[in-house]
Amino acid sequence: MHVYRWDLDKTYLETDFDSLRGLVRSATEPASAKRAVPGAAALLRAISRQPGSRVFILSGSPVQMRRTLEEKLALDGVTFESLTLKDQLALLRKREFRAIKGQFGYKLPHLMEARAGLGTAVQETLFGDDAEVDALVYSVYADVVAGRISGRSLSRIMEAAGAYPDDIRLAQRTLRRISTTEAVSRIFIRVERGVPEHRFQALGGRVVAIHSWFQAALVLARDGRVAPETIGEVADMVMVRRDRDLWQLAALAQDLVRRGHLTSDEVGALELPGALGEAVVEALSRLGPTPTPRPFRPDEGIEYLTLVRAWRKGTRPKAG
Fold first, then answer.
1. CA angle 232, 233, 237 (to 5 degrees)
2. Whether residue 98 sits in one domain with residue 238
3. pLDDT exceeds 80 at position 294
4. Which residue in 7, 204, 271, 278 has the fewest CB atoms around it within 10 Å?
5. Domain count for the chain
C-alpha cells in the first residue's frame, strides 16, 4: 500500500485567503464554482487508480465546508479514504485563538494519528503548498516516523511553532503508537506565492518545489507512482486552464532537470507523447551541464528549531 496525503487550499483548490472578499467567497460558493488547480484533478485521479494507493486529505478548511468539499471532489472524480477538516468553532470555545489560523499544531498530530497502526512497509507521498508551513510540517512528520526526532525534541519543535499543550500531548501519545520506518519518499510543495525554490533546500532532497502539477506528474512517473500517460492528461489540463503552450511545459521539464530533480535521460525514458515530447527534447538539448539528482540522505541534519523560529518571525533562513 502507498499512502498519498493531500492538502486542499492552494494545493488542490484555487483559494484566495488574501482578502476578506476571497474568504467569504470561499466559504459560501457552491461546489460547482470551486476551481481545482490546473492538473491537480487529473493527477489525483491517476494516483487513486494505482493498485494499492490510498488518498487521505487533511485541510485547515472549516468542518462546516465538508459537504461542499466532498461534492467538489466527487464532481472531479476524485476518490479518497478520508477528509479531515478543522473545527474552528471548537477552537473558539476553547479560546485557542492561535490555533484558528495556525497549522503546525493542527496538522502534525493529525498526520501522526493517521500513521499510527500502519505497517512499516507502507510508504507515503505528501502534497502541499507554500502558503502555509506544509514543507516544514511534512518534513518533521517524516523524520518523526523515521525515528530521527525524539519525544523531547518533538515537544520543543511544537512549542517553538506555537502549538498548544493539548496538541503536544496528543502528538506525544501518538508517537508511542507509530512503528519506526523510512516512510515518506517524496514531498511536493506547490510554489504559489513565489517563494524561491532554493529556500526549500534546508529541508533536504526529499522536498520537491514545483510550479505546476505537470512537474509533479513527471517525477511521479519516473518514480513509477503513476502511469506515463498521466503526464499527457495533466499537461492537457494545465494548457487549457493556464493557457500555456507546449514550449512553456517544456520549460517546466527543463526546470526540473536544471534543479537536479530529474536527469535528461530519465525524462527521455518517459516517452512523452507527440509534439509535447518533441518540445521537451528540444528544451533539454539547450541545457548545459546539470547537477546530479540530489537524493534524500537520512543523515542530513535539519535544524528544525532554527527553521521554525525563523518561520514564526516571518523570515526564511537560507539553506546551509
1. 110
2. no
3. no
4. 271
5. 2
